[in-house]
Specification:
- The complex is a heterodimer of chains A (about 250) and B (about 300).
- With about 250 residues, chain A is mainly alpha-helical.
- Chain A has one domain.
- Helix content of chain A is about 80%, strand content about 0%.
- The two termini of chain A are about 30 Å apart.
- Chain B has two domains: about 220 residues, Rossmann fold, CATH 3.40.50; about 60 residues, Alpha-Beta Plaits (2-Layer Sandwich).
- In chain B, the strands form three sheets. A six-stranded mixed beta sheet of chain B has the order 6-7-8-3-9-10, sandwiched between helices. Chain B has a four-stranded antiparallel beta sheet with strand order 2-1-4-5, covered by helices on one side.
- In chain B, helix 3 crosses helix 4, helix 4 packs across helix 5 and helix 9 packs antiparallel against helix 10.
- Classes of the chains: A mainly alpha (about 250), B alpha/beta (about 300).
- Chains A and B meet through helix 1 and helix 4 of A and helix 2, strand 6, helix 3 and helix 5 of B.
């Protein structure tokens, strides 16, 4: 009930913010523009729309997750709105969880709206029904959940600017962890193998959630893989939120 | 209702990890049903104390209890209302949504939430602004809705941080009436302020905090009784130069303007002597005013003793 109240309030906060709409507008614009790009190329119209649109959904989702995510907690502290919340019968972890779920809900709405735009665009211009692409959207959403959790974690102990930097860095690194593994397995890197292996397993492997290439080119992705990726994402989110709560619990609200 | 034992808070500031004590060994006892004023100049540690009590910051030493339970106890928070200093609220919500949100945090049912919100918004004079977003509220309106949200759970203990700041005289009067109304219903009110005339009227007991230290505590009467004798102000007309000099020698202080002189006596006895002297010298007394020392005098004196201008 209390977590729900905070979540709904957070949802309203984002939904009533102009930034959300401008980002949504540009994301929709990019999906529309993909039609123009597809006209410039010979053949493969559908693939270009699919590629660009899925990319746009991910990209703008990440921007919302990070830039709204880092503000969720820090804005409450800066505007001192948290003072009245914490003095009510609500635990700090419930507050943090509510904030997280609120943004997750907002992102779900965002992803749904974008998917609808994308599917309609694709159908109108190519006559292709894009249901087969939806697993890629699902995993993209799970990735957004991980990114949001990391943004919240950083914002529990850092300033908004630094939090954004950390979250963005983690996002980029998260897509490159495969290279860490490759590096670790290379000959001549034995001394560093331990460290590289540790980083590989410790950092989130965001490439797990990227099956856009496969679905666009009709390569089959097994249900098992998708289920495992979702599970991996959920576990990572749980870990990030647990650390966030630990940090947040000790914090003084000056 | 509120009990603190040797409560201390040290903030660590800056790159050099410099220690800044904000509160030093505060021991307080606020009893059930009383209106308790927590006074002090800016930076005395009032807000720090309230934040500790509300579980927003953790004290570095000492203990505190609310309703005999340790701080942060959720069952206590159910019976608590809090208005922070210069409150900022979710400005994207309308007044009605705002109240509804806080009601939800207490797990109050939908029907009751709505009823209480209506009653409270009426009480603080915001019924007309029910559907207005908080971003369009004036400072005074925000202060009012802040008080309304603190009362949504019909709390037994209400803690207010500077409830009168930012309000015009009418607003201040309304807040005073709300506080007195709560007292009548047996609630305990603990509030910090530096607007002193209000305190004398509504507080049962007060505490004066200066630079993190408790300087005085007691009823307003007790604190006033501990002050020195009354002073007297006397305005005189038609006194010659010689008469002026004679009275001046008795008075502690004098202001002479065209045709009129105002004398200040720190001792009523001297004022009496001066009175006969004035008539003797052919002068006329225009006004004679005894000055009761006010809470403000005590406050200023305590602050001065504390080493602040």
């Amino acid at each position: 009930m209390k977590v729900y109240a905070i979540a709904i309030n957070t949802f309203k906060e984002v939904i009533r913010d102009k930034i959300f709409y401008s980002l949504l507008f540009f994301a929709v614009l990019l999906v529309g523009a993909s039609v123009l790009f597809s006209m410039l190329s010979i053949g493969g119209t559908a693939k270009i729309i699919e590629d660009l649109s899925l990319g746009a959904i991910s990209l703008f989702g990440v921007i919302i997750a990070i830039f709204v995510g880092i503000g969720l907690v820090s804005k409450e502290l800066e505007k001192k709105t948290i003072y009245t919340i914490i003095s009510k019968p609500i635990s700090r972890y419930e507050f943090l969880l509510g904030k997280y779920l609120g943004l997750s809900l907002t992102l779900l709405v965002y992803v749904s709206v974008m998917s609808a735009c994308f599917l309609i665009t694709l159908y109108v211009f190519t006559g292709v029904l894009g249901w087969a692409l939806m697993p890629a959207v699902l995993l993209a959403y799970v990735e957004l959940l991980v990114v949001t959790a990391s943004a919240i974690l950083f914002s529990t102990f850092s300033t908004p600017t630094l939090s954004a930097t950390y979250a963005l860095a983690l996002y980029v690194i998260g897509h490159l962890t495969g290279d860490l593994k490759g590096l670790a397995d290379k000959k001549g890197a034995e001394g560093l193998k331990g460290l590289l292996d540790f980083l590989y397993y410790f950092l989130p492997n965001l490439e797990n959630f990227n099956i856009k290439g496969q679905v666009v080119h009709g390569v089959a992705v097994s249900g098992g893989y998708i289920a495992m990726s979702v599970l991996y994402g959920m576990l990572y989110v749980a870990g990030l939120l647990a650390v966030s709560v630990l940090v947040f619990q000790r914090r003084n609200f000056k | 209702m509120i009990r603190t034992e040797d409560l201390g808070m040290v903030f660590v500031a800056g790159f050099m990890r410099k220690k800044v004590p904000a509160l030093k060994g505060l021991t307080l006892d606020v009893k059930k049903g009383e209106v308790f004023g927590f006074l002090g100049p800016n930076g005395a540690g009032k807000t720090t104390t309230l934040k500790i009590l509300m579980g927003l910051i953790y004290p570095t030493s000492g203990k505190a209890f609310i309703m005999d339970r340790p701080l942060g106890d959720v069952s206590v928070k159910h019976r608590l209302g809090f208005l922070p200093e210069q409150p900022y609220f979710y400005d994207y919500l309308s007044a009605a949504e705002f109240m509804d949100f806080y009601g939800r945090l207490f797990g109050i049912g939908k029907q009751e939430r709505r009823e209480r919100a209506d009653t409270l918004l009426g009480q603080v004079g915001l019924s007309h602004a029910k559907d207005l977003q908080l971003r369009k509220f004036s400072k005074g309106m925000l202060q009012r809705i802040g008080i309304a949200q603190a009362l949504i759970n019909d709390p037994d203990l209400v803690v207010l941080d500077e409830p009168m700041s930012g309000l015009d005289p009418i607003g201040r009067k309304e807040v005073k009436d709300i506080i007195l109304g709560l007292k009548e219903r047996g609630k305990t009110i603990f509030f910090s302020t530096h607007i002193l005339p209000d305190v004398e009227v509504i507080c049962d007991r007060v505490a004066i905090l200066v630079k993190g230290e408790l300087k005085a505590t007691g009823t307003v009467g007790e604190l006033l009784g501990s002050m020195k004798a009354l002073s007297v102000e006397m305005a005189v007309e038609g006194l010659g130069a010689e008469g002026l000099e004679a009275v001046k020698s008795l008075a502690g202080n004098a202001v002479v303007t065209d045709g009129q002189a105002v004398f200040f006596f720190d001792d009523p006895e001297k004022a009496r002597k001066a009175r006969s002297l004035v008539y003797e010298k052919g002068g006329d007394i225009v006004s004679l005013m005894p000055h009761r020392s006010s809470l403000e005098d005590i406050f200023v004196e305590e602050v001065r003793k504390g080493g602040q201008p």
